[in-house]
Design goal:
about 400 residues, mainly alpha, SLC26A/SulP_dom, Membrane-Transporter-like, Sodium-independent anion transporter
C-alpha cells in the first residue's frame, strides 16, 4: 500500500505540487476562451476544468495527464446550447460520461494498439503547429503600438523558461515566467491584455445539481447525437494524450481505465454544472515538462484552479496573456516531433505518408480525431497493399 501511494501520489511531492500550480495558472485563460466558444457562462468551463482534473486524478488510467474543458469539445456543443439551453448541455455531459464508461467496460481502449508511431507523430506535429498559430492573435490584438510590448514580454518569458533551469530546477521555469512577468507588468503599469479581460471569474464554489430537463425519450433524442459525438471525440483525444505521456515518460498506462475514468469525470462534471471535457495535451505537456509525474500533479491542477479563481481571482486576473503565450510557445516547440520530420528521408515511404496525411488533415480541419482516423485508415490500406513500414519504432 505504501509503495502504491508513493508510486501514484506522493513519490514526487514538491515537483508535482509546483507543476500542478503551473497548469492551474494556464488553465484559467483557456477555460475562459472555451466558454466563449461554447456560448456559456465562464464558470461552466472553469467548474468543468476543476471537476474533470480532480476526478480524473483518482479514476483515470494515466498519472500526470490533465483533463479539463477543451476547445474540441466546446465546438461540438454549440448547437445544443443555442437550440436547447444550458440544462440540456449538462444532461448531454452526463450521458457522454455514461457512454465513455461503457466504452471502457467494453475495452475500447485496446484499439489504441492500431495507432502506429507515424500517426502519433503526425498528430503531435499538427497539434504543435496549431498551438503556435493560436498564439498569433495576441501579438496584433492591440494594433502595431501594442505589438512591441507583447513581443518583449514573450521574448522575456521564453528566456526565463529556457535559461532559469540552468540556475535551479527546484521551481518550474514556466511558473517563474508567469509570476515574475505578472509582477513586472503590474509594477511598470504596462498596458497589456490580461486574463481578466477575457471574462469574469466566478467567486463561488460549484454545487451539486440535477439537470432541469424532462427525463424522457424526447430529451434522449435531443442529447444522444451530441453525447455520442462528444464521447467519441473526447475518448480519442484523451487516449492520444495518454499515449503521448506514455512516450514522454517511458511508461505504460491502462487505456481502458482511462476510458472509464473519462466517463466518471464527465458524469461528475455534468452533475456540478460543468461542460463535458477530455484530455488536454497542451496542459499535459506543461505538467510533465514542469516535473509533474504522479496523480497528485493532476489533483493539484484542479484544486489549484478552483482556489485561484474563487479566492484569488483578482490576482489571477492580472496575469498578462503574453506571459502565457510564452509558456504555450514552449509547449508547441516541445510537442512537435522534430525527429519525425528530420528522419523522413531515412524512414520508409509508407511511414512518412501516414505522418504527413495525419498532420495535413488535422491542420486542414482542426479536428484531431478526424486526422487520427484518417492516419489509422491509411495505415491499414498501406498494409493491405504491401507498402513497407507503418509499425516501426517511434521516431
Amino acid at each position: 500500500m505504501i509503495d502504491w501511494l508513493k508510486r501514484n501520489w506522493f513519490g514526487n511531492l514538491r515537483r508535482d505540487v509546483l507543476a500542478g500550480l503551473v497548469v492551474a495558472l494556464a488553465l484559467i485563460p483557456e477555460s475562459l476562451a472555451f466558454s466563449a466558444i461554447a456560448g456559456v457562462d465562464p464558470k461552466v468551463a472553469l467548474y468543468a476544468s476543476f471537476t474533470m482534473a480532480v476526478t480524473i486524478s483518482i479514476a483515470g488510467g494515466r498519472p500526470a495527464m490533465i483533463s479539463a474543458a477543451t476547445g474540441a469539445m466546446a465546438l461540438l456543443m454549440v448547437g445544443l446550447v443555442r437550440d436547447h439551453g444550458l440544462q440540456y448541455l449538462f444532461a448531454a455531459g452526463i450521458l457522454t460520461g455514461v457512454l465513455q464508461f461503457i466504452a471502457g467496460v467494453l475495452r475500447i481502449g485496446d484499439l489504441m494498439r492500431f495507432v502506429t508511431a507515424p500517426v502519433v507523430g503526425g498528430f503531435l506535429n499538427a497539434l504543435g503547429v496549431m498551438v503556435l498559430l493560436a498564439q498569433l492573435p495576441e501579438f496584433y490584438r492591440a494594433g502595431w503600438s501594442g505589438f512591441w510590448p507583447v513581443l518583449a514580454i514573450v521574448v522575456a518569458g521564453l528566456l526565463i523558461i529556457y535559461l532559469f533551469p540552468r540556475l535551479t530546477r527546484a521551481i518550474p521555469s514556466p511558473m517563474v515566467c508567469i509570476v515574475l512577468l505578472t509582477l513586472v507588468s503590474v509594477w511598470w503599469g504596462l498596458e497589456l491584455h490580461r486574463v481578466g479581460d477575457i471574462g469574469a471569474l466566478p467567486d463561488d464554489l460549484p454545487s451539486f445539481l440535477i439537470p432541469d430537463v424532462p427525463w424522457n425519450l424526447e430529451t434522449l433524442s435531443i442529447i444522444l447525437p451530441y453525447s455520442a459525438t462528444m464521447a467519441l471525440v473526447g475518448l480519442m483525444e484523451s487516449l492520444m494524450t495518454a499515449e503521448v505521456v506514455d512516450e514522454m515518460t517511458n511508461t505504460e498506462s491502462d487505456k481502458n481505465r482511462e476510458c472509464r475514468g473519462q466517463g466518471i469525470a464527465n458524469l461528475v462534471t455534468g452533475l456540478f454544472g460543468g461542460m463535458a471535457g477530455c484530455g488536454m495535451i497542451g496542459q499535459t505537456v506543461i505538467n510533465v515538462r514542469s516535473g509533474g509525474y504522479t496523480r497528485l500533479s493532476t489533483m493539484t491542477a484542479g484544486l489549484g484552479l478552483l482556489v485561484l479563481v474563487v479566492f484569488f481571482g483578482d490576482w489571477a486576473a492580472l496575469i498578462p496573456m503574453a506571459a502565457l503565450v510564452a509558456v504555450m510557445i514552449m509547449v508547441a516547440l516541445t510537442t512537435i516531433n522534430w525527429a519525425s520530420v528530420h528522419d523522413m528521408r531515412r524512414q520508409p515511404p509508407g511511414a512518412s505518408l501516414v505522418m504527413l496525411t495525419t498532420m495535413g488533415i488535422v491542420l486542414a480541419t482542426h479536428n484531431l480525431a478526424l486526422g487520427v482516423i484518417a492516419g489509422v485508415s491509411l495505415t491499414f490500406c498501406l498494409k493491405r497493399c504491401g507498402v513497407r513500414a507503418v509499425n516501426g519504432e517511434n521516431p
